[in-house]
Specification:
By secondary structure, the chain is an alpha/beta fold. The chain has 11 helices and 12 strands. It has 2 domains: 130 residues, Aspartate Aminotransferase, domain 1 (Alpha-Beta Complex); 206 residues, Type I PLP-dependent aspartate aminotransferase-like (Major domain) (Aspartate Aminotransferase, domain 2, 3-Layer(aba) Sandwich), CATH 3.40.640.10. Helix 1 packs antiparallel against helix 7 and helix 9 packs across helix 11.
Amino acid sequence: MQSLYFDAAATTPLAPEAADAMDALRDTWGNSASQHHLGRESRAVVERSLTRIAEVLGVSPHQLTPTHGGTHGNQQVLQVAARRWGWAHLYASTVEHSSVVDLLLPENRFDPMTFAGTRPEARLLALMQVNNETGAIYDIAALRRSFPDAVLLSDWVQAVHRVPHSWLAEVDIATFSAHKFGGPKGMGVLYTAVPEAWPELTAQHHTVDHVRLAGMAAALLRDPKAEHLQRLTLHLQQLLQASVPGLIIHRHGIAQASGILSVSVPGVRGAQIMRLLDTEEALCVSTGAACTRNIFAPSRVLQAITSDTQHHYPVRLSLHTGLTLEDTEHLAAAFASIVGQLRAQVR
C-alpha cells in the first residue's frame, strides 16, 4: 500500500534543495556569535541566507531576525508587546493560531472579516494572512485602514508563495516558519517593518542555527510551482464535490489560498474519516491544526466562523507540489468510499 501525504499545512516534505544546502555546511559548524574565524564563517552563512530570504520576500535583510519558527515568533512578539502596553491592550482575531490566542485575554477577540470586537484602546492587533485550517485569505489592508495607529502582527506561516509578498507592506510585524514551504523544522524569521522600534525583538539572544537558516533560504528560492498547486487543489475539490453527497467546503464567502481544503460531511466526524484514511489507505490527512491535541473536539476556528454544528468537525486536506493529479484522484476515491462506509453504519 502506497503512503500518500496530504497534511502539508502541518509540515511539508523537506525540499531536496534545502537538504543539499544544509548538507553542504556539515563542516561549517562554528557558532555565528563567536569572534574567531570559524564563527565568522557561520556568520557569513547567516548574512547570506537572510539576504536571499529578503530578496524573495521583497524586504531588506536588516528587517529579518532568525527565530525558531512561527510559534516562537508569535509568542516573542506578544510577550514584548505585553511588557510595553499590558495584556489588556493586545487583541487577536478569533481564528488565530493557538500560539497567539492562548496567550491573550479571552475577551480580547475580534471578527477577522468585520473586525467587530476591537476596541479603541487596542495597541496591537493580530490577524493572520492565511488561515492554517481553512486557507482563508484575510484582508490585512482593510484592518490597516480601520486602525491606522495600531501595531499589526500577522502570522504569515501559511502565506508564503500563496499571496503577493508585497502585502507585507501593510503589517508592522510578521512571522514565518521554514517547514511550511519545504524548509527544516525549528527555523523561521521575524519581519519587522521598523526594526529600530523593536530592539527587544531584533536583538539576537539565542544561537542562530546557520545550517537550518541556509536550508530555509534554499527552500524559499526554489520554484513554488503555484500553478501546479492550484490545479491539484481545484481537481481535488471537484472530485470530492462530485463523489460525496452533502459535502461542505469551508469557504464562507472569502478568498481562499491554494493547497488547503477544509471539508465537513454532515453526520460524520472528521476524526473518523481521518483515522480510516490512515489505517486502511495509508493516506495522511488531519482534522485541523497540527497542535490540536483532541482530534475529536470541534474546530475552534470553525466554531468562530459559523454556529452550524455540521461544520465543526472537519477534515483538512492540505497539498504540496510533490503530489500528482492521480494522487488526488486516489484520495478522493478513498474519501468517498470511507464516507459511504461510515454513513451506512449509522442508518
